[in-house]
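pipeline/complex-builder :: batch 7 item 3
reading input block
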Amino acid sequence: MNIYIIGAATTKFGELWGVSPRTLAHQAVSNALADADITTKEIEALFVGNMLSGMLGGQEHLGAFFAEELGITAPAFKVEGACASGGLALHNAVNSVLSGQYKTVVVLGVEKMTDHKPEDVATALMGAGSEGERLSGATFPGLYAIIARAHMEKYKTTERDLASVAVKNHYHASLNPNAQFHSPVTIEQVLKSSCVADPLKLLDCSPISDGAAAVIITSKPSTVNQKHVEIIASVAATDTLGLAQRGSLTELHATKEAGLGAFKKAGIKPSDIDVAEVHDCFTIAEILAMEDIGFYKKGEAASAITRGETMLGKSQHLVVNPSGGLKGCGHPVGATGVKQVVELFDQLLGRAQIRQVSHAKIGLAHNVGGSGATATVHILKTI
Amino acid sequence: MNIYIIGAATTKFGELWGVSPRTLAHQAVSNALADADITTKEIEALFVGNMLSGMLGGQEHLGAFFAEELGITAPAFKVEGACASGGLALHNAVNSVLSGQYKTVVVLGVEKMTDHKPEDVATALMGAGSEGERLSGATFPGLYAIIARAHMEKYKTTERDLASVAVKNHYHASLNPNAQFHSPVTIEQVLKSSCVADPLKLLDCSPISDGAAAVIITSKPSTVNQKHVEIIASVAATDTLGLAQRGSLTELHATKEAGLGAFKKAGIKPSDIDVAEVHDCFTIAEILAMEDIGFYKKGEAASAITRGETMLGKSQHLVVNPSGGLKGCGHPVGATGVKQVVELFDQLLGRAQIRQVSHAKIGLAHNVGGSGATATVHILKTI
């Protein structure tokens, strides 16, 4: 059985003070349904990716919560896996359609983070980490700083290399009307931004964001002419929750495993990918992703990114994070994994406007939970 | 493709002050694996049903969290749908096996509630309700009291009828070594217990509990002789989150829909069921379930229960909640939907000891989230 995406949409990402989670969800799903040219009546299940609603807002039972808001009377589920909640929701949705239980389903990723005090958000986000990390007062910038330091020591990665990721992704975001940030930044601006967790500076970190994204997937497009993109691989993988339990600090094992599994399932190799949305919650994370997915050998991604090899307009082949990534487009955690797929859908349909990757035929989305305990890889292909 | 349960286990349910969620999960899963006579190496995915860990304990990312504890390196997901989290986790697990993506998976339901102040637990549980209900200070006993009043007015259901459910389920629990309560209660004791939300008294309400339950499901038992039970239907349904938005207060539409769907899928009718575990979070909820699933016509379940028609030793056919139900066995919310299936597995294998339902061949599990916004029905059959 083949699985197709027939509609996709994202809200604007950013500090959306005046917009509720309901409204965000409504905007994303309504626009995705309109994009697919179908109504809620054709929706047989709703999968919601969200991490923080319970901890920050006291609202759980989000499947039914958003189903009611959206006028969907079908079975509804919330799937949670920290910042990979969106990717995991999509993975479970794909499996449920493959099972034959449902034909057409919506995957909604949604998160509202800016209504809360930053320290409360930081504490809630640590719900993605291990008990040892949480109780010892670690933060995610701190955990990724440890990874960055280890990578810098082992592979001579520099702070300028890290900054290059931010420069590229802020440039891409400046081309994306839905992105949180629209101002390009320079290497010097990144290097001079305030230190968050050495060596990570403010501009090495993805922001606190609000936003929602939705995709409609189906086993059977309603018409031959209905635009669609095929999901040719959907793979999830798991590693230990805590950094201290891992064999290596310079690679994410779950990313490697999900990537290998996805390429095997799709019957292609990393060099076949034209456009990728990878999980750059911190600049170091994009460097890890590029290596662990297999786009570059270990230790070679940083300089390649610094040379502009994955930047729109400069890349000869693979463009990475044309949406702006988590870094530039924003990172409403439960929405991120779905937004990545929305971006790929737009790219593969050739409708990404000024940030269009020319000749994009095969795309890859890579979503990570916590400091790498969960990873999902989805591969999409135009037909 | 057929889906089989090959192993199942539950921890003791109760106020387990000295036991962590990790330990609970470990006990349930280890025993389920031993029951199936397999090791974690054969597990290809882990589905965790849990509602409150984030809100009460600050720990999310529970798929990876419990995978690490259990030594499972496979993809891991948390599925949440309030008190139906266990049923929804099982439903998604069934679909994922049907999809061919995974062959053998574990479904773990787990909840730790007694480490927290009761008022904090009550507040967190309202995360299952609508915003209107939450913000107006409603509680679940209060919401089910409204349902009970409406049912009493419409169908002449009495407080003694409600009490009969508690009497039956406490009697069943007294036969279950894993149950939270082991003392039978009388009608008079229920009626004289302190009022929680009129007409519901303390002994009309399920308790705050700790516990975990696990089932191993597979598309292919490893040997012909491996004990197994088939899941012949797995159906979920959704209704509005809030009571005020519903057409009726005396039935749960999601239960009706899930029940109808499950009977259709299984190709059987309610009278074919020998043993059922239904969602009796409050005594009125079992009466609703008996009617909405179709075991009795509307308005006829209460008197039938009062006559003992569904009680072990008295029933001529259908026995309901032989485990003691949520009322007597306990209600660690994320674990409940999985524990129901563990009980059915034991019953259908004829190993339920002194609470064995004679000639149990077909069983039904019914799990509800909130005041009825989510419902799942699973039907199991011996082979």
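note: Chain A has a mean pLDDT of 97.
queue -> next item
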